[in-house]
Amino acid sequence: MSGCKYITISYNILSDKRLNSTDKLVYGIIESACRMYDSCCTMSNDTIAKILNTTTRTIQSSISKLVKYKFIYRKIENANESYIKLRSMTVIQDTDTTKNTSYPHEENFTPPMKKTSHKYNNKNNNKYIVEIKEIIDYLNLKARKNFRSSTAATQSLIKARLNEGFTVEDFKKVIDIKCSEWLGSDYAQYLRPQTLFGTKFESYLNSIDTVKPKKDFDILSTYETL
User: Fold this and answer.
1) Separation between Cα atoms, residue 137 and residue 155, nearest integer Å
2) Is 91 in contact with 30 (CB distance < 8 Å)?
3) In whole angstroms, what is the distance from residue 126 CA to residue 117 CA?
């Protein structure tokens, strides 16, 4: 421990009323030794006692208590009935002792590891990629713009409308209607995804196209009146 300038004690150890001050300090020394020496502390009771200026019996009592409450795991190898060959201690990472957790013993012991959950799904992320590109390409062609189909905000707007049941043809119709209304005017600046594909999308889709060619029967009627 000569290279250790401080020890750390987690809050759940400090707040545990079953442990006294010496118990908590002993835990801090063992935890710091585990961090410094390959996740294992082999310090003797006498060494820890000298660090804390107390008796070996006090240290032995603290270690027994930490083992009892499953804050540390202690492994002892006996050369014979009266002689301890080696004693090593490992900090148990999951120190929530309110859980009914049993730990394996001896050489089979492995401290519990935290599991990392990966919820990222490539299939969901790539959904509608083809449709989004087709829609943006059509908008760029009709509105003479240069929007990118890879922009996150643009993809989010289009996916939201597609998830509501609208089709690619509905997008193209909205683009056609608004381009016929706004191109060549001050409103041309609003021929953009955030305006066209936002919350007013359905109202744009159901608006009347103001630029419509005359129908054949209208032309014929005009000719017959001459």
Assistant:
1) 13
2) yes
3) 20
How many helices and strands, by DSSP H and E, does the chain display? 11, 2
E-strand stretches of the chain: 72-80, 83-91
pTM above 0.90, yes or no: no
Spatial separation of the C-alpha atoms in residues 45 and 9, rounded to whole Å: 19
Q: What end-to-end distance do the CA atoms of the chain give, in Å?
A: 111
Region for 158 from its dihedrals, namely left if φ exceeds 0, alpha if ψ lies in -120 to 50, beta otherwise: alpha
pLDDT digits (tens, 9 = 90+) for 78-137: 655 555 555 778 777 654 544 444 444 444 445 555 554 444 455 556 788 999 999 999
Three-class DSSP category at 175: helix
Q: Which residues contact 74 (CB under 8 A, 6 or more apart)?
A: 63, 67, 87, 88, 89
Residues in the chain, overall count: 226
Cβ atoms < 10 Å from Cβ of 115: 5
Token pair 């630029």 is found at 211
- CA–CA dist 99, 97 (Å, integer): 5
Strand-pairing partners, residue 72, are: 91
